[in-house]
Amino acid sequence: MRRDFHIGELAARTGRSIYTIRWYEKQGLIPGVARDAGGRRVYADHHVAWLDLIDRLRRTGMSIAQLRQYTALTRQGKSALKEQRALLAAHGERVRETIADWTEALALIDAKVAFYGEWMKQGKRPELAPHRRAAVPAKVPRKRRA
Amino acid sequence: MRRDFHIGELAARTGRSIYTIRWYEKQGLIPGVARDAGGRRVYADHHVAWLDLIDRLRRTGMSIAQLRQYTALTRQGKSALKEQRALLAAHGERVRETIADWTEALALIDAKVAFYGEWMKQGKRPELAPHRRAAVPAKVPRKRRA
DNA sequence: GAACATGCTGGAGCGCACTCCAGCTCAAGC
DNA sequence: GCTTGAGCTGGAGTGCGCTCCAGCATGTTC
């Protein structure tokens, strides 16, 4: 069974570039990276799993800064369990909100696509374009950049 | 009833900054902006609606470049209806995929939060951490930066 | 007609998340 | 023992989407 390996294999197994992995480490997102006699980084299977988790969080909009915080908490282990949980739960909440937001947007997009369909079918513009009546609240400051 | 207004009011009514509005126009995202005698931009209510639509699309991950394309198509009016519809439908598909992706990620996050809860309750790490068994496909090149 | 607000332009700057390079070391295979 | 390949470092560069500024023109109020 495989024991450990170098950065090239980690890159291949996670789909991230070697550059990115080194950069992530520099940002404090990859704890527990040993070096071999020649100064090369040495990884084990759990690093693959960790990078996959990181990737899930990144892809759901978690910033590098928050990821750094989370990583720092996991480094503290058991003593910071509560904080680890809280951070992840908060992120989950943001994800839930975003999904709701996107779902709402999707309804609008679908309506507009249907509207175009009608327009094409009838050869003339149907009454009241959907986006002209959409009561989108105007002043709300944008919370996330999804 | 209100007829038209200047950039300050448009900014106030859409929640975007004056800078952003001017920049959007430079990027070709705001068609039909007239000028008054003094060279100032003049807007009407439909610009508010348009900016709200733009915002919906932006917030669901449409890039400025795609928005530019879409705007160009709407400028062509009826003759490009089919393309407008296709572009929006394609975006809708991407939104659908992203929602699915995020929903999947949310399940993982919730599982991990629950795992932390167990750990804290039992005082010892439960069997098999969820992210260590998650069979995330590794090599798939990331398609979007959500 | 002076003061103040609002708007204009071109262009510089910024924050984020990478991405890449030059120049070097080290290890393994022939 | 020499070539080849993989990895190392510090630092520069990139793309995106804004954000802001200086310096100037115009409009409004008193």
Oligomer: homodimer
Structural class of chain A: mainly alpha
Mean pLDDT of chain A: 87
Strand content of chain A: 5-15%
| Strand order of the biggest β-sheet of chain A | 1-3-2
> Radius of gyration of chain A over alpha carbons?
23 Å
Q: What is the CATH architecture assignment of the largest domain in chain A?
A: Orthogonal Bundle
Biggest interface, chains and residue tallies: A-B, 53 and 53 residues
- Summed up, the domain count of chain A is 2
CATH fold title of the largest domain in chain A: Multidrug-efflux Transporter Regulator, Chain: A, Domain 2
The sequence of SSEs of chain A as H and E is EHHEEHHHH
CATH class of the largest domain in chain A: Mainly Alpha
Q: Short description, anyone?
A:
The structure is a homodimer of 146-residue chains. Chain A has 146 residues and is mainly α.
List the topology elements:
Two copies of one chain form a homodimer.
Chain A: E1 4-5, H1 7-14, H2 18-26, E2 34-35, E3 41-44, H3 45-59, H4 64-76, H5 81-122, H6 130-133
Antiparallel strand pairs in A: 1-3, 2-3
Helix pairs in contact in A: 4-5
The structure holds a DNA duplex (30 and 30 nucleotides).
What attributes does this structure have?
2 domains, 146 residues, mainly alpha, DNA-binding, 3 strands, 3-stranded antiparallel sheet, homodimer, 6 helices, disordered C terminus, Multidrug-efflux Transporter Regulator, Chain: A, Domain 2
Give an account of the 3D structure.
Two copies of one chain form a homodimer. A three-stranded antiparallel β-sheet of chain A has the order 1-3-2. The first copy, chain A, is mainly alpha-helical and 146 residues long. Chain A has helices spanning 7-14, 18-26, 45-59, 64-76, 81-122, 130-133; strands spanning 4-5, 34-35, 41-44. The first copy, chain A, contains six helices and three strands, in the order βααββαααα. The longest helix of chain A is centred in the last third of the chain and has 42 residues, at 81-122. In chain A, helix 4 (64-76) packs antiparallel against helix 5. Chain A has two domains: 1-59, Orthogonal Bundle (Multidrug-efflux Transporter Regulator, Chain: A, Domain 2), CATH 1.10.1660; 81-135. Chain A is 62% helix and 5% strand. Chains A and B meet through helix 1, helix 3 and helix 5 of A and helix 1, helix 3 and helix 5 of B. Chain A binds a DNA duplex (30 and 30 nucleotides) through residues 6-8, 17-20, 22-23, 27, 37-41, 58, 63-65, 145.
